[in-house]
Design goal:
Elements: E1 9-12, H1 18-29, E2 33-36, H2 41-52, E3 59-61, H3 69-83, E4 88-91, H4 106-134, E5 136-141, H5 154-174, E6 179-186, H6 192-205, H7 209-219, H8 228-239, E7 250-253
Parallel strand pairs: 1-2, 1-4, 2-3, 4-5, 5-6, 6-7
Length: 261
């Protein structure tokens, strides 16, 4: 199967660690040129050096706070200037704080909206002029909560579903330009965010995080957490020329954890 990702240009948001970094890594291995971004310039510099050693596509980075519209404009402009075009966008963002409905203020809700939904909207708006020229791919990362809400994560549960609505709607609007848009949702992937969520549940139940991890793994048909690399391969397929007819869909990468149809 030919992916035809060599010399494609990808902007991967929140790519200094975890799932974002794994996606950037896989794309570089396939020969894509990748723009990394996060708020931590020092960490980005380290990831850039690491990925350049793969001797695949070129790698650049640009620090940005994706809750700020001006930072997003600067990020997209920097990608154009460095690589001359944009073919692929992977929207990603760290999860908002955990807690219950009564714990959060209007300010908390506003911050979660800006991070986990408005940032995606702004990035897509900025890259559209590039993608509409010759077509492209947009991937919006979400969470398994799009199918089954996660207790104690009401902010995430709310705005991740907004991502699905956004994806489904613009997939139809952008189809005439050959822009394919999909949502990819991780289940239990071995990242810092998973450690945070497991600890949140452990604290609530008076158990250890290790207890929660063991219990959760037993509930997953594959009996383990996924790796960022496994998740990245799914995203890489969807942004490649191997996918030419799937758009507006939501894909779970969860080892069979979510039981709903």
């Amino acid at each position: 199967m030919e992916l035809n990702l060599a010399n494609k240009v990808a902007l991967v948001v929140a790519s200094s660690q975890g799932i974002g970094k794994a996606i950037a890594t896989q794309l570089v291995k396939e020969g894509s040129h990748v723009m990394l971004t996060s708020r931590d310039g020092t960490k980005l510099e380290g990831v850039q050096k690491e990925l350049q050693e793969l001797q695949g596509g070129r790698v650049a980075y640009h620090s940005a706070d994706i809750t700020k519209a001006e930072d997003i404009k600067s990020l997209v402009q920097a990608t154009r200037e460095v690589f001359g075009r944009i073919d692929i966008v992977v929207n990603n963002a760290g999860g908002p704080p955990g807690g219950t409905f009564e714990q959060f203020t209007d300010e908390d809700w506003q911050k979660a909206f800006e991070l986990n939904l408005l940032s995606y909207i702004r990035v897509i708006r900025e890259v559209l002029p590039e993608l509409k020229k010759e077509g492209g791919r947009i991937i919006n990362l979400a969470s398994s909560s799009i199918r089954q809400p996660i207790p104690g994560l009401i902010l995430s549960n709310t705005f991740r579903l907004g991502i699905v609505g956004l994806t489904k709607t613009i997939a139809e609007e952008l189809a005439p330009y050959n822009i394919l848009v999909n949502t990819v949702a991780p289940g239990k992937i071995g990242t810092d965010r998973t450690v945070f969520v497991d600890q949140l549940k452990a604290n609530k139940l008076g158990l250890t995080r290790e207890d929660i991890e063991k219990e959760t793994k037993n509930s997953i048909p594959l009996k383990r957490y996924g790796t960022p690399e496994e998740f990245a391969k799914v995203v890489t397929f969807l942004v490649s020329d191997a996918n030419t007819y799937m758009t507006g869909s939501s894909f779970l990468v969860d080892g069979g954890m979510i039981k709903s149809i």
